[in-house]
Amino acid sequence: MVDLEQLSQAIITGKEKTAKELTGQALAEGSVPEHIINNYMIPAMEEVGARFERNEFYLPEMLIAARAMQGALSLLKQQLVGKEVPTVGKVVVGTVQGDLHDIGKNLVAMMLEGSGFEVLDLGVDVPPDGFVEAIQSSSAQIIGMSALLSTTMIKMRVTIQALREAGLRDQVKVMIGGAAASQRYAEEIGADGYASNAYGAVTLAKKFIAS
Prior knowledge:
The structure is a single chain. This protein is 57% helix and 10% strand. The radius of gyration is 17 Å and the shape is globular. The protein has nine helices and five strands. Strand 4 (173-177), helix 8 (183-189) and strand 5 (193-194) form a beta-alpha-beta unit. It is α/β, with parallel strands linked by helices. Strands 2-1-3-4-5 form a five-stranded parallel β-sheet, sandwiched between helices.
């Protein structure tokens, strides 16, 4: 019988191959995907976040842990197709129009998914109406916008205005991040929050859902 605590440790230490092998064994032995996700994968990612907060982990460790989690999760998703699986909440993420940087955004998306959120990743160079359309079609509760360049972060303001014009601003929480962003800028443009890293984004998203 596979020891799923080893799965948690494989995710925490970023051993993707081991994580996938253990997940496959657990499924073969009849483990329920939701049980694996809720009791082993999500706690593992929470531990990764806690270690980051204590300065025991840094960006590279977070990234390989998130990739290990994604590898294991990909096997579970195959078993969950067609099933209604409860999630913490739904988040739309994307890098704003004119900006093609996605490393930070990708890590945020992986950390959110590993923490139980359903994530709709719009990719890079996302225009304001792209975010609006995603909210309209998905009914997500949160938007996460990223910008690395100071020349593109203006699109965060434009996107928030587009949400207002579409009558959606009161229905969704907006968080921003990336090298160009700051708490001061978030307040200036009317965003609901700012996160300087992926763990902060997850913490903020959980706070939004709980409020």
